[in-house]
Amino acid sequence: xxxxxxxxxxxxxxxxxxxxxxxxxxxxxxxxxxxxxxxxxxxxxxxxxxxxxxxxxxxxxxxxxxxxxxxxxxxxxxxxxxxxxxxxxxxxxxxxxxxxxxxxxxxxxxxxxxxxxxxxxxxxxxxxxxxxxxxxxxxxxxxxxxxxxxxxxxxxxxxxxxxxxxxxxxxxxxxxxxxxxxxxxxxxxxxxxxxxxxxxxxxxxxxxxxxxxxxxxxxxxxxxxxxxxxxxxxxxxxxxxxxxxxxxxxxxxxxxxxxxxxxxxxxxxxxxxxxxxxxxxxxxxxxxxxxxxxxxxxxxxxxxxxxxxxxxxxxxxxxxxxxxxxxxxxxxxxxxxxxxxxxxxxxxxxxxxxxxxxxxxxxxxxxxxxxxxxxxxxxxxxxxxxxxxxxxxxxxxxxxxxxxxxxxxxxxxxxxxxxxxxxxxxxxxxxxxxxxxxxxxxxxxxxxxxxxxxxxxxxxxxxxxxxxxxxxxxxxxxxxxxxxxxxxxxxxxxxxxxxxxxxxxxxxxxxxxxxxxxxxxxxxxxxxxxxxxxxxxxxxxxxxxxxxxxxxxxxxxxxxxxxxxxxxxxxxxxxxxxxxxxxxxxxxxxxxxxxxxxxxxxxxxxxxxxxxxxxxxxxxxxxxxxxxxxxxxxxxxxxxxx
Length: 642
Hints:
The chain is an alpha+beta fold. 42% of the residues lie in helices and 16% in strands. The longest helix has 27 residues, at 468-494.
């Protein structure tokens, strides 16, 4: 695991100075090794910081092919590297390292070109300089587990594993993208390929790019839309086998590894398969002194049932609160998932014992474990009735407003039925919903498209050919999983130099799960139904039947008490007027309503507060730099996603 950086430009710049700064900004991602390569004549530089996991002595980067045509820096782990290495050896390829997966990627690309990416089972972000074609190649794993940013810079492009790396490139603009800001306030994250900065994009998962000083061309090599329908008969046995193989693959390591064990079904399932292949498994969880906030009981139950060597640390709530003002250091692009705070604490604790941890991320998206799937399932069923939305609207119009607000609710429901399944998901998950632009200053609103859904609609157009259930799952994978869950885990863990692996996101398992009949995923009101069935006799019922619980924090109470001064400072009318991004009257209304206890608006205030902390840390506190007004049209982004 590493942090990578790259620079390509056609104007004179201090290549060595910039690549050193870009690379060293990622030191937390790779404290074990460092390397850079500078090609002055080509205007190209590559850098990496390494967290040594596999082939500790032989994996130094940058790495070259023998003919010096290709130079590579690589972040990630390739779990089928041994098989690919054997295939390449059979084709006559010589290797210089003992078992480095980095060298497998290097020679694999030299042999197969862009066909390599679909051959890789793992997580990765890779940069390769092709000196013959004079192209910088960038690629990212299918689901976007490892991050990669691409920023326009002076005379070319700066690339890096985190936004902070690209900001160290020459002349990278520090301008807020208004469309990205509205997406963040609406969805809790910025939908790639946008980032919060104008002129900087995220290479989406399942894509590669070819970069020259004058051009950036992105191409998808994988999309989760070609679904092979799985028969119900024997599905449990197939899921069991795929999970077993996915976990076994992710035990590949030359350093100690462990398990994030929350006591939920997903992490307990991963622990079960780890115990199949390991005599000793170290599991890690955290708890809190406050009983209404502590769920460490379940992790202890799971550890006892699995027979793991369990490590539990109990924190005070104050320890968690102390992290809040500093979260912008970990998140150099705002992302509103408040559970990054306990995830960071868990990562810090775990890293004291191991360098790698397995986790349960991905199951809820693929196997319909989230509670949001229930109302969406009702809507899917109603979709089959032609004209139902108009019928509901007619009934609602006849209801007087005084009857418990039924008219308003009925009309709202009818409007939601007219949305596509993936659009419903985006609106269900948001916190500001359709009201985000109400807190933005007039000068920012002038840059916005007609609807915040315009851009996601274009990017997810291929989903519309799928059934309603599949549209929802695909939108979950492309949006919430890639832009929230995986970002949270990557930033929180890599900030502590810990690698996290996700067996549920194994490509074979993903393809299988996408083809499962809906009733095997969401059976009546029970999500992850098939997974619960195969684990029923393997884990205690207390864990199998436990309702889904997030890694949440009591934000509403915090922002009214210990963090009140932070809110009043960063969201003060004077600060907001000087900054010019938010409507200070609208924001003050939210602040006063929340602090008075008239409504719980903690998450909305968290989104605003986090943005302010981020803006001060990374852009400075002066008036915002905004791109020139473009009327009502969205600003251009790389090719539409599918």
